[in-house]
Write the structure tokens for this entry.
Amino acid sequence: MAEVIVVGAGLAGLTAAIHCARAGHDVRVLERYGHIGGMAEIHPSVDVTPMDPERLGAWLGIELKPPYVTPPTVFRVWCYGRKHEWPAEWHHLQSVERGARSTSLESYLYGLAREAGVRFEFGWTLRSQADAAQLPPNTIIATGLMVEAFEALNLPFQQVYGYIANGRFEGAPVMVGWFDDYTRDYNYFANVNGVCFALAFDRRPVRKDLLERWREQLRRDEGVELGNWKVHEGVVAVRSIRNPRLFAGNKILAGTLAGMQDPFCLFGVHSSLVSGKIAAIAVDDKAEAYDLFRRMSSAYKYSWVARRLFGLQPHWMRNVGVNLGLSVWERRPALLRPMMEWSLRTIPGYGKI
């Protein structure tokens, strides 16, 4: 069968490559870095995302298991100084290690891709419209948070700013989030497989003095001291309510580039895996893939509108409203469970498999 080129060896690109190879295609993956696992200055990192590993894994034909996908024990939220805590299983959360270590999800998928006969070429970057024009029809483009691909394909994007840090951290996996007046989004800390990751971010530049406030809270609240903080900027596909799209001309999009991302919390792991399989289906059957893509991303617009409304709220209103909601969820979860389950279904692909 015809050769299929996949640009990007992240979660979506690797998943697409595996499924194209399983369908009988000769698959070549073009990756900008000289290795699997993305930017070495960021990773190893930890993404925590809602996921049903058994159900999603069965749909993908890829077993999702520890150490690549591991359930955290606790989910804590510090909301304007107030602490809330409950079992992470209430949100169906899973911790996913990212990067180049053998325990990362990328390394696991890379091994499966190699077993399926996928070939890899490192050091190729999609930088411009001219680069995109050189790629043959049915090329799958899954370049994640890289702005060059958005600009080359004329896709809307939202700039995000912040600081990241990682390090060694032993103990059971946890997920901790912070809402406070130093960000219009949230900050978080997570750990798995002996490493930890912290992210302070916003959809506008984060001032250094605000980062210092959160670092002090991280030390005081969780006893975590990280010293290797780095500036991090990227883009996400949540600028427009019409961001989700499977095709750009005669190219197929996957992952973040396709807008398969929750616009409220920016969860992307689950939807990247789902999107990778859909992109592979599109190589041979565009109509089937498009119908599946529309169904998987059908709740995006509701989450997009909810995030816009949340973004308009002043901090005093968030303080009252979010703390009230978290207190009810913590003490009487049955009252809010239907709303919580609905909100999880706004994540592209979640609950639709």
